[in-house]
Amino acid sequence: MSTAEGPVLSPRALNRALIHRQLLAQRSALSPAQAITHLAGLQAQAPNPPYIGLWTRLTDFAVEDLAVLVRERKVVRIALMRSTIHLVTDDDCLALRPLLAEMLARTVKGQFGRQVAGLDIDEIAKLGTELAEERELTFAELGALMAERWAGHDANALAQTVRNLVPLVQVPPRGLWGHSGQAAHTTAGRWLGRGLDPNASIDTYVRRYLAAFGPASVKDMQKWSGLTRLREAFARLGPALRTYRDETGTVLYDLAGTQLPDPAEELPARYLPEFDNILLSHADRERIMAPEYRPRVFTSNGIIRATFLIDGFVRGLWRIDRVKEAATLVVQPFVPLARRDVVELTEEGERLLRFAASPAGRHDIRFEPVG
Hints:
Layout: E1 2-3, E2 6-9, H1 11-21, H2 32-38, E3 42-43, H3 49-55, H4 63-71, E4 75-79, E5 85-89, H5 90-99, H6 101-112, H7 121-134, H8 139-149, H9 155-165, E6 168-171, E7 184-187, H10 188-192, H11 202-213, H12 218-225, H13 231-237, E8 241-246, E9 251-255, E10 270-272, H14 294-297, E11 307-310, E12 313-323, E13 326-333, H15 339-356, E14 362-367
Parallel strand pairs: 2-8, 13-14
Antiparallel strand pairs: 1-2, 3-5, 4-5, 4-6, 6-7, 8-9, 10-11, 11-12, 12-13
Helix pairs in contact: 6-9, 7-9, 8-9
């Protein structure tokens, strides 16, 4: 079926497009840096999920392939889209941060405006920049130093205000596989040796977003980015885009000339890490996950749990339990699985254990109901 705005796409058609663009239909031969660029970053509240996100998307990916990029400053961890920590390339860090500056400032005003009311925001940013460039600081250390200047004000609120006003990157060992502890920060300019990109264009990132997540609506990109008023950017691209509609009538945009995969295509089972952007980057998530599963995946304390895909759609949760020298992959389906799906999840799960729990002396896989 077609309308004046173009063909109507079913959730399954949108799913196939998304799975292919997210490098999940088959593992890609892209390098980790190329994949991170294509995906416009990986959400990265915790250190390990980006490694699993790349493992499930790339051929022959090893932990060190990403770790070396972190150590060599070719990728960085920084608050960007939705004011959440993302792992992005150095170039994307310097281009995206100024484009998102207004949203980040608005976010901190909404969250911490009361605690810093009456203070000069520019002074906060200036002192925060000076302190973070003198030496690498945890937020606790930064907040304590800021509170010396503004006694009586909440130290954490001051540190978080700096976080959203100043481009602070997390430095290694944060971002390395298996490392935990408080993150230390410095400015992006100090860490990367160059400043923010003054010529960055939101139009470029409309195209980048569609290449990784399209076809999609204006509201979808706003959900991914945290930005508002993006309709003008889509309009500026004009003939560079084509339009569809979804089954509710929402206008969807895509890059002109991009072919969509066959909706009938069968897709392999995939394990996704916590916080995977594929679950977070659309206003309408039915192309990847049924609405009734959302409360099981998105927890009340802000965790987005690790999931698995069957035929392109979220069908359950997974985790790895470690006891002494054993590692057990616990697979929790939301619905009964066909035998072939169990077999495929088991085979892929064995590969996941070899990647994520290689030091363990024994690997097991257990299927159980969601608790």
